Each structure stands twice: as C-alpha cells, then as structure tokens.
C-alpha cells in the first residue's frame, strides 16, 4: 500500500514499483474517475464529494476497491494499492477480509511543495502521462496544446484535500505500524531526491 498527501508522488512511485515488481497498480482515485467518465450512479455521487476535497463515502469506495483487489490479475501477480485505505473504517473493511499489505509506504512532502505541484500538474489525455508546467514541461507544442487539468487540482481544493489527508492519516499509521516505511527525502527544485 502507498499513502501520501495529494501530489506527494504516489503516482510516480507506483509506476517505478510496478515496473520493478510486476504488481497490479490499483488507484482508488483512478477507479473513481473512471466511474465519473462512464457516467455511473456511483460516479455521479462520488464527484460531489471529490469536488469538495472530501472522502467519497465508504458505500461507494469499499466495494469498488474490494472488487478490484479480488480480480484474478491482482490475486496472481500481487497488488499495489494507491489511495486506499484513507480512513480507519476503510482499513478495517480489508482487515475483516484478512487483507493486509506486506509494506505500507508513507510519502512525506512539505505542504508548500504540494500546493505548487498540484496547481501546475497537467495530464496528457492521449498517453496518460503526467506533466508539471514548471518541473516537467511537455516535450512539444502539440502535447502542450492538448494537456488537461484535473477538476480538483486547484489551490482552493488542494487545501481541502490536504486537511482531509491529515485528519485521516494518523489512524492508518497506527493500524499498519508494523509494516510502515516512511520516505525520507531531501527537496530540490520541487522534486524529491534520495
Ligand atoms: N480511498 C478513498 N476513499 C474515499 N475517497 C477517495 C479515496 N480515494 C480517492 N478518493 C476521492 O478521490 C479524490 C482524488 O483522489 P486521488 O486521485 O487519489 O488524488 P489525491 O490523493 O492526489 O487527492 C479524493 O480527493 C477523494 O475525494
């Protein structure tokens, strides 16, 4: 499992871990955005909470993630769960099924950097690649012209998302204390380096 504030680098680390260990990457946020994109009832309800930077209710999220975790590819190759659990009750839903991570990675990045990263973050809808206008700009004009921004990647909304994150993270740390690994980073030009 990997946890961290919005834009703490979960997506980037997940790509590296997935490539190295061949795990199935399951991102709760991506699953929710897929529900929104296909226009399901769950997606419509979820969007209201996501727009406020709040957690989507367990009724929607828990079964969605459980269902994905139990699919054959994740069972066979192992999984890397990103953005779930985000609360005590979500963690307990997995504990009651006997689902525990071998490792719980917690990324720790100062808030000032997070806000700057979120506000400059852009997505290439064609390739799925994430850019940052300042730290990782698009390679050419063609890509630059098609970049999109997540609807919740504004300064106002990231502050709410950060509050939600800090309210919940302590309870997760206590549940996974025995398997936690904290990223210790130095910061350089908006990026984390070892
Ligand atoms: N496990 C979860 N439980 C409830 N809501 C979630 C969960 N994961 C994601 N969300 C919702 O989706 C939004 C975006 O999540 P995510 O893509 O992981 O981005 P970030 O962590 O960068 O905010 C969150 O602000 C929240 O509203």
From TrEMBL:
SUPFAM superfamilies: P-loop containing nucleoside triphosphate hydrolases. Its EC number is 2.7.4.3. Keywords: ATP-binding, Chloroplast, Kinase, Nucleotide-binding, Plastid, Transferase. It is found in: Plastid, Chloroplast. InterPro entries: Adenyl_kin_sub, Adenylat/UMP-CMP_kin, Adenylat_kinase_CS, P-loop_NTPase. It comes from the Eukaryota. It catalyses: AMP + ATP = 2 ADP. Its main location: plastid. One of its GO terms (molecular function) is AMP kinase activity. The keyword Metal-binding does not apply. GO terms for cellular component: chloroplast. PROSITE patterns: ADENYLATE_KINASE. Pfam families: ADK (PF00406). Catalyzes the reversible transfer of the terminal phosphate group between ATP and AMP. Plays an important role in cellular energy homeostasis and in adenine nucleotide metabolism. Belongs to the adenylate kinase family. This is adenylate kinase. It comes from Aegilops tauschii subsp. strangulata.
């Amino acid at each position: 499992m990997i946890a961290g504030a919005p834009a703490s680098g979960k997506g980037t680390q997940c790509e590296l871990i997935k490539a190295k260990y061949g795990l199935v990457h399951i991102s709760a946020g991506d699953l929710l955005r897929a529900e929104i994109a296909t226009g399901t009832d769950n997606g419509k309800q979820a969007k209201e909470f996501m727009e406020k930077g709040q957690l989507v209710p367990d009724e929607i999220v828990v079964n969605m993630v459980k269902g994905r975790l139990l699919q054959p590819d994740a069972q066979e190759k192992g999984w890397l769960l990103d953005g779930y659990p985000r609360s005590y009750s979500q963690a307990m839903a997995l504990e009651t099924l006997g689902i525990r991570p071998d490792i719980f990675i917690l990324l720790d990045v100062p808030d000032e950097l997070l806000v700057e990263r979120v506000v400059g973050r852009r997505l290439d809808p064609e390739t799925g690649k994430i850019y940052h206008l300042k730290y990782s700009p698009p390679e050419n004009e063609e890509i630059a012209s098609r970049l999109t921004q997540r609807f919740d990647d504004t300064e106002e909304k990231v502050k709410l998302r950060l509050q939600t994150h800090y309210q919940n993270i302590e309870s997760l740390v206590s549940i996974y204390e025995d398997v936690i690994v904290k990223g210790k980073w130095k910061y350089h030009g908006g990026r984390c380096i070892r």
